[in-house]
Amino acid sequence: MKTTKSTIKSFINHNEGKLFINVKSSFDGMIDGCAYHNDGFRKAQKDTDNTRNTLGVSGAWFVNGSHDYFTPYNQNGLRGYEVSNCCGYFILAIKD
Questions:
Q1: Domain ranges in the chain?
Q2: DSSP letters spanning 54-90
Q3: Residue 54: count of CB within 10 angstroms of its CB
Q4: Are residues 88 and 25 in contact, defined by beta-carbon separation less than 8 angstroms?
Q5: Three-state DSSP class for 37?
Q6: What is the mean pLDDT of the chain?
Q7: How far apart are CA 80 and CA 48, in angstroms?
Q8: Has residue 12 got a pLDDT over 80?
Q9: What are the residues whose beta carbons fall under 8 Å from the beta carbon of 88, sequence distance 6 or more?
Q10: What is the pLDDT of residue 26?
């Protein structure tokens, strides 16, 4: 089964309150590119400002169209999805 944005949206909705995020990189206008992070997983916080691009998760960023890439994630007792695009790379997961 192919992972789509709808898959990710459903995963977020079904796991509200149990979701963790690990932002590995994000767009930084100071360097006009992506800056890498090593912050690890943290409890996901709600974002109500730009739900079209964040799907309601602070730190997540979707560019929409066919420019988001999704990969299943299952490591260290966490399972979910890796998301990458031109604005960064992050992992959304829940504890197994």
A1: 5-95
A2: HTTBTT-----TT--EEEEEEETTEEEEEEEETTEEE
A3: 17
A4: yes
A5: coil
A6: 92
A7: 22
A8: yes
A9: 23, 24, 25, 26, 27, 34, 61
A10: 83
Q: Half-sphere exposure of residue 31, counting CA atoms within 13 Å on the CB side?
A: 9
Asked if 47 contacts 90 with a C-beta cutoff of 8 angstroms, the reply is: no
DSSP 46: B
CA pair distance 35, 96, nearest whole angstrom:
30
Give the integer Cα–Cα distance in Å for 79 and 50.
Answer: 25
Q: What gap in Å lies between CA 39 and CA 21, rounded to an integer?
A: 10
pLDDT (mean) for 44-71: 91
H and E: helices and strands count for the chain: 2, 6
**20 in Cβ contact with 57 (< 8 Å):** no
Instruction: Tell me the sheet residues that pair with 31.
Output: none
Q: Which of 32-36, 67-71, 76-80, 86-90 has the lowest mean pLDDT?
A: 32-36
Contact indicator for 79, 96 with CB cutoff of 8 Å: yes
